[in-house]
Structure to design on (403 residues):
């Protein structure tokens, strides 16, 4: 009896983000502004600023990862009033991040208090589309960078702003001609952004959706704990291969030897980073229920774990990890190999997934053969019992999360 109904490709969704380069005075590229994009078209199509800002943060921290988007350079991300009040910058690393406070954010006491706390803790802020006014004058106390739109002011007003606020790091926005670039350079601007230098580029990524129940359960296990139970966190993570895939994709500094188990993935990412990921996922629109095929693919992974336990607990953990990743593999063989190469996997795990070599590879091969009906379960005494056990483990884990 097969573990699931054949090898169906996992359900997926496509995420998009725009990235526009920002260039310095002679030092070349210094960073990227990350921009909301709802599709592959290079346009900002949204009506809810909070959701657009949250979507960019989610893509940067969870779906694609800052290293892949910025190559280690500074990321600039827009921040709404609610983003300030919720202190979303705390979900990100302090270095190589600038949060652009949007022009409609008012300097009321709640905003000022949140900014004071975050600046005191080392976070960096800019004012986007800055124009001097009584409304935003108080915000200047907490920002280091001002972005001035050369298209949005008369030349004399633009020059007055540049001279009056020269103590700040000034970035010229919407620079569209060589003459404008030279003018901003002569006025002492520190950096430049606009079509003359480079247009935004849309980056897209296809990923399986994450179950909200997993995210919330993982937050309960992790958040506010002085000592984190990594084993409990790994058990929750084992119920959602899509979340595991994101962890493997966005890991900023994976160990040189690669990763072969869920516990290693949690340690390598870091609990703080994992909590930040889950916080953003919990706030974003998503599915509360796992996809219909979830129980089948989780049963497959649990069967891998059971077969690995015959040898050792280590091999059981490695087989479970590989079985979970198998659940989010693309159907196309070339794309599958590209995925294994892109993830920070241990060499033995990558070989097991790609070529079914080694003891874990043999387990994967056997499970897939049973699943595809290539091998008759009746010819292997006891396999039906093991499959039933795997299904029960998978079902029990999901039911525990959903209660």
């Amino acid at each position: 009896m097969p573990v699931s109904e054949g090898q169906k490709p996992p359900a997926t969704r496509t995420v998009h983000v725009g990235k526009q380069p920002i260039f310095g005075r002679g030092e070349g590229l210094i960073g990227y502004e990350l921009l909301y994009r709802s599709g592959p078209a290079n346009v900002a199509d949204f009506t809810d600023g909070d959701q657009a800002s949250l979507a960019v943060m989610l893509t940067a921290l969870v779906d694609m990862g800052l290293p892949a988007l910025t190559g280690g350079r500074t990321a600039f991300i827009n921040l709404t009033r609610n983003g300030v009040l919720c202190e979303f910058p705390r979900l990100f690393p302090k270095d190589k991040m600038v949060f652009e406070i949007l022009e409609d954010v008012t300097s009321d006491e709640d905003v000022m208090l949140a900014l004071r706390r975050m600046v005191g803790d080392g976070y960096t802020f800019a004012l986007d589309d800055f124009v001097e006014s009584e409304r935003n004058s108080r915000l200047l106390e907490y920002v280091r960078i001002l972005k001035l739109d050369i298209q949005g002011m008369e030349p004399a007003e633009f020059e007055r702003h540049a001279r009056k606020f020269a103590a700040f790091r000034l970035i010229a926005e919407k620079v569209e001609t060589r003459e404008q670039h030279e003018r901003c350079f002569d006025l002492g601007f520190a950096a430049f952004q606009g079509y003359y230098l480079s247009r935004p580029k849309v980056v897209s990524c296809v990923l399986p959706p994450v179950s909200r129940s997993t995210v919330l359960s993982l937050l309960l296990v992790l958040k506010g704990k002085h000592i984190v139970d990594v084993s409990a966190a790994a058990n929750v993570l084992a119920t959602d291969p899509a979340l595991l895939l994101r962890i493997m994709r966005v890991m900023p500094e994976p160990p040189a030897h690669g990763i072969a188990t869920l516990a290693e993935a949690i340690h390598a990412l870091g609990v703080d980073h994992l909590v930040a990921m889950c916080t953003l996922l919990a706030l974003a629109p998503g599915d509360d229920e796992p996809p219909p095929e979830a129980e089948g693919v989780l049963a497959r992974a649990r069967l891998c774990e059971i077969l690995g336990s015959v040898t050792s607990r280590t091999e059981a953990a490695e087989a479970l990890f590989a079985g979970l990743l198998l659940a989010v593999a693309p159907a196309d063989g070339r794309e599958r190999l590209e995925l294994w190469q892109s993830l920070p996997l241990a060499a033995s795990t990558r070989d097991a997934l790609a070529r079914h070599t080694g003891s874990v590879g043999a387990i994967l091969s056997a499970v897939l053969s049973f699943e595809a009906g290539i091998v008759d379960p009746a010819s292997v005494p006891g396999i039906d019992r093991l499959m039933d056990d795997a299904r029960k483990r998978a079902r029990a884990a999901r039911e525990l999360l959903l209660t």
